[in-house]
Amino acid sequence: DKMEENGGKSKWKLFLEDITVLHLVLTFLFMGLSGLLLLVYLMFTSLWLIPALYFTWLILDWDTPQRGGRRSEFVRNWCIWKHLKDYFPVKLVKTGELNPSKNYIMGCHPHGIMSMGALSCFSTEPGGFPQAFPGMRSSLAMLAGVFRMPFIREYNMCAGLLPVSKQSLEYILRKSGVGNAVVIIIGGAEESLASAPGVNTVVMKQRKGFVRLALENGADLVPVYSFGENELFPQVLLSKGSIGRKLQALFKRVMGFAPCLFTGGRCLILPYRRPITTLVKTGELNPSKNYIMGCHPHGIMSMGAFSCFSTEPGGFPQAFPGMRCSLAMLAGVFRMPFFREYSLAAGLLPVNKQSLEYILRQSGVGNAVVIIIGGAEESLASAPGVNTVVMKQRKGFVRLALENGADLVPVYSFGENELFPQVLLSEGSIGRKLQALFKRVMGFAPCLFTGGRCLILPYRRPITTV
């Protein structure tokens, strides 16, 4: 019946969820500008004293967002945030503990259109962060320009939001004690322009400042990924170089945020009800358990993954004592003479269900199987400055983990795509169709890349695998 179709929710419960999310979308889209226009209008009426007093307050209070804000536990505990969480629903998953005697910077992807998953998990108490990590305080950083807009700045500060500026973040990390987790949505406006159902694009170009910030302030880095965030709003993705995309880029440079051409479900602005699972990668690996590590990006040759997970000097045995790692690669390689022996000796495995289940079921515990999720499709999108994550029709590793009682661990090799320049053929072109045909027949992608010396040696670029 209707109750079962809606997950057992009553009409009243669904209505409360809709109103909560509608309020959030309207706040996101219109509160800042409408508040400013209202104050300007009141200046020319008999109520001129109200905006005069507010603007005076605004000047006196101008630096508060840069000094930790004005967090309100009352606002963060509003019951409407429970309805926000239930609407999609949003689920926070942790893979370890955070130490309340330390500070952390969490790098979160993807941005999506409105970052609903990050907002629910890190700016509301019902989102689950306080329960998952007792003794920790989370603060979500967002566009600094929002904190110069009337009314919405107060609302955001009450929810514990902060401007994503060096001054603001350093204040939290240096002057607010320990037990702080600052959440930065790394890709920002650029990543939001690449948000669409079935698309998982990670933007990292010219966005390494958070790493420097962590090093300078003694904070640990924690990767966060909200699976499902990009499924909420269909968006028209304008091609690079088109007039529309250039206008979006110009708007972003001037205003600081991107004008995404999106639609929702009902009323055209309510997001679709799609589950969001926010995975927080923390802590050590437990040698009494097994793990599946989902690694991105593939790059041309996966140099970072090979070094870290198939060689002893790569650092994995030292970082995780008692654990054994096995990198999975194209199964067809193990049908090639000599090369199969070489690959087996390095601990490589074919990336098929039989092989992986053998490790997870019959090789005891303390195993970490590393799968480069995006495979050949992701390698075709590899180029310096490009960070495309391919997840479409690649959820089998999640089922494999559930069936074999293994924990999932996200892995990202920053810098992998910087090693080899590649000619990126446009979707639908004859060249790309030939690449796709070759991939279907042979199992791997013929990437049109060059290297440095001898045209095949990769460029010397640092690779940091987190």
UniProtKB/TrEMBL annotation:
The transmembrane segments are 12-33
- What keywords tag this UniProt record? Acyltransferase, Endoplasmic reticulum, Lipid biosynthesis, Lipid metabolism, Membrane, Transferase, Transmembrane, Transmembrane helix
Q: Protein name, please?
A: Acyltransferase
Report the locations given in the UniProt record.
Answer: Endoplasmic reticulum membrane
- Tell me the GO molecular function terms: diacylglycerol O-acyltransferase activity
Question: What is the topology of this protein in the membrane according to its UniProt annotation?
Answer: Multi-pass membrane protein
Query: Which Pfam family would be a valid example here?
Result: DAGAT
Which principal EC class is assigned to this enzyme?
transferase
* UniProt xrefs under InterPro entries: DAGAT
Question: According to its record, what are the GO cellular component terms?
Answer: endoplasmic reticulum membrane
Q: Name one GO biological process term.
A: triglyceride biosynthetic process
Into which family does the record put it? Answer: Belongs to the diacylglycerol acyltransferase family.
Q: What is its EC number?
A: 2.3.1.-
Q: Mostly located where?
A: endoplasmic reticulum
Top-rank taxon, per record: Eukaryota
